[in-house]
Amino acid sequence: MADSPAPEEQATGTGLLPSLNNLIAKRGFQKWAARFPFTRRRVRREGEALFDLLAGFCHSQVLLAVVKLDIPARLMRGPMDCGALSAVTDVPVARMEVLLRAATALGLVRRKRNKRYALTQRGAALVGAPGLQEMIRHHDVLYRDLADPVAFFRGETSPELAGFWPYVFGGDVDPALARTYSELMAQSQLLVADDTLDAVSLKGVRRLMDIGGGTGAFLAEVAKRYDTLELTLFDLPPVVPEATERFAKNGLTARTKIEAGSFRTDSLPMGADTISLIRVLYDHADETVARLLTKIFEALPAGGRLIISEPMSGGETPTKAGDAYFALYTLAMGTGKTRSAAQIKALCLTAGFQSVDLVRTRRSFITSCVVAHKAQE
Ligand SMILES: C[S@@+](CC[C@H](N)C(=O)[O-])C[C@H]1O[C@@H](n2cnc3c(N)ncnc32)[C@H](O)[C@@H]1O
């Protein structure tokens, strides 16, 4: 009985003909389709795609090992052979050979004629993309949280990630932990800032307030593009010293105000004609987001704008990055969720904004953008 299709699956067939999915699931049909000239290419592609899903965890672990053993940085200094890499990483030669062959198959390294390994362009991008290696390094926490995926989706686990980002609970933060998290955020912020500022113009803006602006990495990038714009950073008190340091280092002290506070319990500073929320909403539950958006609406003048930039769900069309990665990540964090642009738009309209634009960004796996407008009086 266990093998018979569920009633709703049977119902997908029409009349006497079985549904296409019922056919595809039959081994005899699979064998025929794998040989038939008009179907065999598609069958092979689908088979490969399924195998990639099955092997995805191994691929991620190869990536993690490559990063943890500092192989990209070592190969940036010049090609190395397996023996040399084995010696500097303390991985036995035979096992290093397996790792390097796997990394070759995944396009991270390539073996030259002289048997030395060099980075490919993809491998070099690992070094060049700010924050990517730090992100990969801290993935071991996420992977442990997902080790029993059924228990995870049933909500029966206590994910470690929820403790990795304790600030979202609004509690006191250990300064050392705040620094680890801030470093990771600031590094990866550079890509987010690039894509956000390419998608949304700040021409004509007088003062921008970045709420949950962390250590000021986004505002520092804004300052590079707009040299007269005044800047305000609003974030929890533990993050403030590093932001002060960054603004001083970048010669921005005179142009920036730093306001320490919590958007949960404090009122927001007035005076900005544009407010940004960069990777903030997905950390929080709908009620917190709704209250924050209302506070922002009240803090903005007539005609003011709110820019929201963060990885989003694909909504009606789920995406690999938004729905098969960030949604799981935020679920493990336990306090927020990955929302679609349409869901964020609806929350903004409920908060009082007159209109909301969904702005196309260059790489949705880095960030997506929504811009909300307060009515002119
Ligand atoms: C995911 S980080 C994003 C930081 C930065 N915007 C970025 O994209 O790199 C979320 C930020 O929101 C801040 N935050 C969280 N809860 C907050 C609260 N209640 N009030 C103010 N800031 C808060 C955190 O301290 C943190 O800097």
From TrEMBL:
GO BP term, pick one: methylation
Domain O-methyltransferase C-terminal: 143-354
Keywords: Methyltransferase, S-adenosyl-L-methionine, Transferase
Enzyme class: transferase
Gene3D superfamilies: 1.10.287.1350, Vaccinia Virus protein VP39, Winged helix-like DNA-binding domain superfamily/Winged helix DNA-binding domain
Source organism superkingdom: Bacteria
The organism of origin for this protein: Sulfitobacter noctilucicola
Assigned EC number: 2.1.1.210
SUPFAM superfamilies the UniProt entry points to: S-adenosyl-L-methionine-dependent methyltransferases, Winged helix' DNA-binding domain
Domain O-methyltransferase dimerisation: 52-127
GO molecular function: hydroxyneurosporene-O-methyltransferase activity; O-methyltransferase activity; protein dimerization activity
Protein name in UniProt: Demethylspheroidene O-methyltransferase
